[in-house]
Amino acid sequence: MFQKGDYIVYGSSGVCEVEEIGPMDITGITKGKLYYTLSPFYSNGSRIYTPVDNDKIVMRSILSKEEAMELIEQIPEIEPLWVNDEKKREELYQQRIKTCSAVEWVKIIKTLFLRRKSRLDNGKQLASVDERYLKIAEDSLYGELAIVLGMKKEEVEPFIYDHINELALV
């Protein structure tokens, strides 16, 4: 169980702070059942109420700083995803996004960076479905890493590139 003040990843809502843990006094809700009151980090003023025992939406602790740096160092070795069928590719992206796994987000980002390059080389744009999943994966990954590493979300991508380039020189 998470504690008040913990930062967690809550499904597609991304990083949230656990503000409260306790029963809810609302008609139609089981008395005595514990709920988290979550505050999405990147959505000011929003609140999410979810049962502590919710198993329908992924809830996990955010990465530690050490885990975040390990992930960044592993990025060059993480394999992209390849599916030629458009419908299956979208299904695969959906499945991987729903895992809320930072490694899966990296796979999607790497896949779509390579796909974008290939399409641009052939005079084509990245498909809108690919753009959508690239944005979701980047927002999810960079949002979590920004909090963990104590930086702004827009600083994360350059930080990753710089760190990977430094490792390549060693």
What series of H and E elements makes up the topology?
Answer: EEEEEHHHHH
Give the tally of β-strands.
5
What gross morphology would you assign? Answer: globular
Using only C-alpha atoms, the radius of gyration works out to 18 Å
Percent helix among the residues?
A: 40-55%
Largest sheet: 5 strands, antiparallel
CATH homologous superfamily heading of the largest domain: CarD-like, C-terminal domain
Our measurement of the CA-to-CA distance between the termini, rounded to an integer number of angstroms, reads 41 Å
CATH architecture of the largest domain: Up-down Bundle
Mean pLDDT equals: 93
Tally of individual domains: 2
What's the total helix number?
5
User: What is the fold named in CATH at topology level of the largest domain?
Assistant: Methane Monooxygenase Hydroxylase, Chain G, domain 1
- CATH level 1 name of the largest domain: Mainly Alpha
Strand order of the main beta sheet, please? 4-3-2-1-5
Compact summary:
With about 170 residues, the protein is an alpha+beta fold.
Give your account of this protein's structure:
- With 170 residues, the protein is of the alpha+beta class.
- It has 2 domains: 55 residues; 105 residues, Methane Monooxygenase Hydroxylase, Chain G, domain 1, CATH 1.20.58.1290.
- Helix content is 48%, strand content 16%.
- The chain contains 5 helices and 5 strands; from the N terminus they run βββββααααα.
- The protein has a 5-stranded antiparallel beta sheet with strand order 4-3-2-1-5.
- A hairpin with a 4-residue loop joins strand 1 and strand 2.
- Helix 2 packs parallel to helix 4 and helix 3 packs across helix 4.
- The longest helix has 22 residues.
- The model has no long low-confidence stretch (mean pLDDT 93).
